[in-house]
Amino acid sequence: MGAQASLLLSGEGHQVTVMARKPSQAPAVAALPFVAGDYVNDDPSTFNLAQYDALVFCAGADIRYLPQDGSVTPQDFYREVNDRAVPTFIEAAKAAGVGRVIYISTFYPQLAPEKIGECPYVTSRHNTNEAVLALASVGFNVCSLSLPFILGRVEGLEVGHIDALVAYAKGQLEGLPVFAPRGGTNHMSSVSVAHAISSALKKAEPGRDYLLGDANLSWQGYLETWFSAVGNKQELTILEDDHPLLPNVIMFAGAGASICYEAGTELDYPRGQIPDLIKSIAEAV
Question: What share of the chain has pLDDT > 90, as a percent?
Answer without folding.
Answer: 90
